[in-house]
Write a structure and sequence with these properties.
- With about 400 residues, the protein is an alpha/beta fold.
- It has a single domain, classed as Glycosidases (TIM Barrel), CATH 3.20.20.80.
- The chain is about 35% helix and about 20% strand.
- The strands form four sheets. The protein has a nine-stranded parallel β-sheet with strand order 9-8-7-4-3-13-12-11-10. A four-stranded antiparallel β-sheet has the order 2-1-18-17. A three-stranded mixed β-sheet has the order 14-15-16.
- Helix 7 packs parallel to helix 8.
């Protein structure tokens, strides 16, 4: 799709197509690698397929080049065998690795839509179906798998479907080929809401080892991303190393939530010190969640990252500019804003105000943070408006 001498034309009026044009003048030099600007997608973005599809053009227009979202194991492989699948649902499933019935309908749609908009996908392989859960009942939603091998086979199924030789691409030659190259193994396992039952570091490393081997066996060019680590992320990373995690991930992922923009850099430096101490200085970092919310004065809870809408936009802009300057020193590969869309209604959960857009009934409102993201991203990506105002010319 792209060459070293090509430039990228993003047509605002019809952003579903992306064309490479040779030698177009007017674009500034790109200061960040392709994919540096990402966003997380969850919540109201996926309550209605038309909402998600309608937001891909605004994402591209805002400079978003990568989308991180959950590939929910519960929904993709809800049954352990075809004997368990209700007869009227059999046609919804294909055979995944190990013969597990697998429903690719949601993931196929997301991957296709993203590829058609020139966006890469970073899937978070998360949650556990009842048949594979260590715990059931009220803790099932946060249960780790009882058998890491079952999770590894799920990961392998995703790679065989969407990796460089994935069946999805051979079945859909009409879709621009943008294979998934990175797979994130779980999310924040040091929190009970994602990993119930204690002993998280020991059990997570067992899971990580099996998943790493499975992903690389399915696609030698694929890369494994460590679960995103929040709060004292450097401390949790040290625990993963202590349990033998080194050598079983290709990227370290961090969620540096903090009140102050400079605190983001402080957290990432602490993480890098732990990596150097364990001889992983060459590995790159991903910030797979970064956010300040627009929840100031709107919720009872306080996480320390609540701002007004204008404050949220200001800190988004400052953080991305800072991280773009520090990316080589920190070996920072990409930064994903958490999140694209929220409802901005909760009286008790500040992250419900984290979106750069908010959904209001049947409409979507672009908050000041959206405009801040667009201006910042397009500047750093080397994009400039053409004189007719109908297109963006970006340095590749």
């Amino acid at each position: 799709m792209r060459s070293a001498t090509a430039v990228l034309l993003l047509a605002i009026a019809s952003l579903a197509s992306i064309a490479a044009l040779p030698g177009t003048a007017g674009a500034a030099a790109r200061r960040v690698p392709h994919g540096f600007f990402g966003t997380d997608g969850d919540g109201p973005l996926f309550t209605d397929p038309s909402v998600f599809e309608g937001q891909l053009d605004p994402m591209v227009s805002a400079g978003v080049e990568s989308l991180r979202l959950t590939f929910d194991w519960r929904k993709i492989q809800p049954y352990a065998s075809f004997d368990d699948v209700p007869p009227d649902q059999t046609s919804n499933y294909q055979s995944g690795d190990g013969g597990v019935p697998t429903d690719f309908s949601f993931t196929d749609g997301v991957v296709a839509d993203a590829a058609q908009h020139g966006m890469t996908v970073l899937p978070v392989l998360l949650y556990v179906p009842t048949w594979a859960a260590r715990y059931t009942g009220k803790h099932e939603i946060a249960s780790p798998p009882k058998d890491p091998g079952a999770y590894a086979r799920f990961a392998s199924s995703m790679v065989h479907r969407y990796g460089t030789s994935g069946s999805f691409w051979s079945e859909h030659p009409e879709i621009p080929r943008m294979p998934i190259r990175m797979y994130q193994i779980w999310n924040e396992p040091h929190f009970d809401v994602f990993w119930w039952g204690g002993h998280w570091a020991r059990r997570y490393v067992k899971l990580l080892r099996r998943a790493y081997a499975a992903v690389h066996a399915a696609d030698s060019s694929a890369r494994v991303v460590l679960s995103g680590l929040a709060n004292k992320s450097w401390h949790f990373l040290a625990r993963i190393y202590a349990r033998g995690g080194r050598g079983h991930f290709d990227y370290v992922a961090v969620h540096p939530f903090t009140a102050h923009v400079k605190g983001v850099a402080t957290i990432l430096r602490r993480v890098r010190r732990v990596m150097r101490r364990h001889h992983d200085r060459r590995l790159q970092l991903l910030v797979t969640e970064l956010s300040w919310t627009s929840a100031r004065g709107k919720t009872s809870a306080r996480f320390g990252i609540e701002e007004t809408e204008r404050g949220q936009a200001r800190k988004l802009r400052q953080a991305y500019r800072m991280l773009a300057k520090l990316r080589r020193r920190l070996r920072l590969h990409a930064v994903y804003w958490y999140t694209w869309m929220t409802l901005d209604r909760s009286p008790s959960y500040p992250f419900d105000y984290a979106g750069v857009t908010r959904r209001e009934d049947d409409s979507v409102v672009r908050k000041p943070a959206y405009r801040a993201m667009r201006k910042t991203a397009l500047t750093l990506e080397g994009c400039a408006s053409k004189t007719n105002g109908t297109a963006l010319v970006c340095d590749p």
